[in-house]
């Protein structure tokens, strides 16, 4: 038997997967059919000499499509909306005998039925929802077309050709990168799945390139400025590269459900070499600490240029980068912060806190955790895969927490479905429901192995869910979009509905909870300032005519914001005697020396107080976290706010410590104004600087602002800056003087510059 070569694709006739926007095959410039007569000359027929796309920022194509902010020289349009092009021919166009059409191609193996090859015929009237080209002007040898795209078109970068029909075949323009066209989702188009009907919300959730992310504690909410930078040079290509890296089939890139789900997996690098490596161990020797990032631009550009995941991120960094990805592609998106966010490891819709008989937490059995806060994203879209009524905001989370269908990702999950407990609808609704609406169960583990439920806290989880307000930097409370008001019948009904849809509940908490104790306990933590002592006050209230004795235990821990404990820095036990119908306060002093040496980046001080009533054996338990108050950054801008003028950005903060700070990093970012930069200011060993005004200046021009990934930004000046002390001030001030020599559309303001000091 003679050997034969193996057939391509194992004998199958299908084409290979088309999963790369960057990969391409050129279409032939000439497609002749059959034999051509002697003397046949291509120049005798209509030929294209030039194509004009009207792609400048001020042209109607970009203005009308709200893409004029993109730092990109190509034509960028939104699907489902018409745009204009002009074609120049070698002679006047005669519609009676000349036939041509525009073609759009994406990827390497274009197919019309997959939407990767789009022939656009010239028609007399454009129809909504269909591709078509209408001649709107004929002048000499030029024809201007109005092209209507489909609202379901693939989102990505298309190659454009013009094909002319002759009696002997097709003549096609050659590949020209200048005519490449980006097509994005369109929240302004009613037929698009991401249509958003409020103009102010579109301005905020699609076009706003700076924002605020909330973090901190429920009782001490803090804000972090974030530069999304979705219009910055190279970011659109970086976002398309993210989908290429995921090997996402091009035919699915017109579906916002699929795009957001792929983005959720790819923004983290847990299992797919995605954009960001997460780290919660407080060791960042091989990368940038999460709190040092001021925006998404450096992260995405570094990922695209190095082809390797960027180090490091935590939940707000993942959410910030994911927000950039979604807005850049045209999907309305916002960052959401949930205070006291549950991480349900066993999918039983409850947080199980196991206690020893003496009241201490059993860390071996306690696997669930409650994050002090957690950030994720919401993306706006219709859900054609769900029943009517579950479209709108969808929760999507790129922080790697639990595996979903074989990958670390979460969502999109309908916020409306989560509110009503309909967690049977995809994707990952049970996990998101538990994050915002699970119960906190305190369970005592007896020596004989039995478990007794001591207390059920139904109000601790999902205490507050917020996002940035539209048109401002204030807080918008959106808790009621995720859950009914605590204590209402609807809220309990939603939980029962969730349980009915198959969420397991390993421990039945109904009917076995101990009767309410005669003694109540609560505690308050004094405002804690970094480097200073503070007090914790515990209040015991006896509501009965009986006299009680209590054994109380206080544990103070340094915890990651995820609720995971790093170390215990405070341990104290005491006895309390309560007379009938009385209360007593116990004060515990927390000294700075006890916690300062153990601090974490983004760490919290978490206090757990338990008490056992000797007479009744009742166990009381309360836990609270507090955020150490750190210096606020004050940003000031001096100078004429005009193109080409020198300006000074001053960053100030007060050192609250009784020791000198050295090697202080300043991270500065201003979208549309300056590229992200960082600079270390070194302390002067001869001069104490803790209570002096320190002033440093650096001249930076656009020629010295060089992106060098992964090394970020560098200047031509390499030597350390000198520090000059001055009497009479208790602040540090850093002045960065930079001259802009290239044009930008708006002046610098405080709101458009974000900075981070470490």
Automatic annotation (TrEMBL):
Q: Which PROSITE patterns match?
A: TRANSGLUTAMINASES (PS00547)
What would be the name of the gene that encodes this protein?
Answer: F13A1
InterPro entries, alphabetized: Ig-like_fold, Ig_E-set, Papain-like_cys_pep_sf, Transglutaminase, Transglutaminase-like, Transglutaminase-like_sf, Transglutaminase_animal, Transglutaminase_AS
Supply the Gene3D superfamilies for this chain.
Immunoglobulins, Transglutaminase-like
Spell out the SMART domains in the cross-references: TGc (SM00460)
Q: Lineage of the source organism?
A: Eukaryota, Metazoa, Chordata, Craniata, Vertebrata
This chain belongs to the protein called Transglutaminase-like domain-containing protein
Q: Which PANTHER family match?
A: COAGULATION FACTOR XIII A CHAIN, PROTEIN-GLUTAMINE GAMMA-GLUTAMYLTRANSFERASE
* Similarity-based family: Belongs to the transglutaminase superfamily. Transglutaminase family.
Q: Where does the record place a coiled coil?
A: none
Transglutaminase-like domain location is 307-400
Q: What residue spans carry the region label Disordered? A: 1-26
